[in-house]
Please model this.
Amino acid sequence: MIANYHTHTYRCGHAEGNEKDYVQEAVKAGLKILGFSDHTPYEYYDADPARYPSRIRMKPEELPGYADSIRALAQTYSGTLEIHLGVEAEYYPKYFPRLLEMLRENRIEYMILGQHYLGNEVGDVYSGRETADPQTLRRYVSQVCEALDTGLFTYLAHPDLIHFVGDARIYESEMRRLCRHAKETGTPLEINLLGMREERHYPTASFWPIAAEEGCEVVIGCDAHQPDKVMDIASEKAALETVSRLGLKLKETVELRKI
Model:
């Protein structure tokens, strides 16, 4: 790998280390490009304040400090490492316009799509929860496709996060719909190394042959929540074996889509 665009910081509440720790590990590993994409803040302005803001993402008031820190590191390491300022964001239609305002106010460069929840998160379904309900699968795919239609997401992180254990024919049909839409919108799909190294249900074996058949472009993302995971050699090797075996179209770098 020469580039990783999927990197978190302590602000999301479930990652370790500060930004400089990640940068130093990236330099040590020989990366050329490091993109930070911590879990974006979201303002759930009509939700129960005892439950939200969400506890899996940075708070809105932390966004300016996050942006300033990454921009400062980009200047410090200019000529050694190309550093970009992004976020990993869900597409929640109700709250999305306000999110874009916040991101643009703080000059965030790019978003990657990680659709962790359906609907608008508040009181709805976590995408990674095991389900045999076809409607949940269809909702996931439809919401992802709607997000891709905005043209604002640089790539789709862990597209196979949805944990469907029902009829395999329905799974294939819906994920083929997702893959076709990704190709139509020119959106790469991420092979997620966090899921690989922690042996989660994703990367899902039945998903990637569909992506290959549909001619989707793919990118490898470390999804680093600890500094030493910005370069994960063992998982990268396994991901590259999947790419080679299935004939997937690997992109070493991606063009960042402006917000």
Observations:
- Helices lie at 19-29, 63-76, 96-105, 134-149, 168-184, 193-197, 208-213, 233-246.
- The domain at 3-250 is CATH 3.20.20.140 (TIM Barrel).
- The chain has eight helices and eight strands.
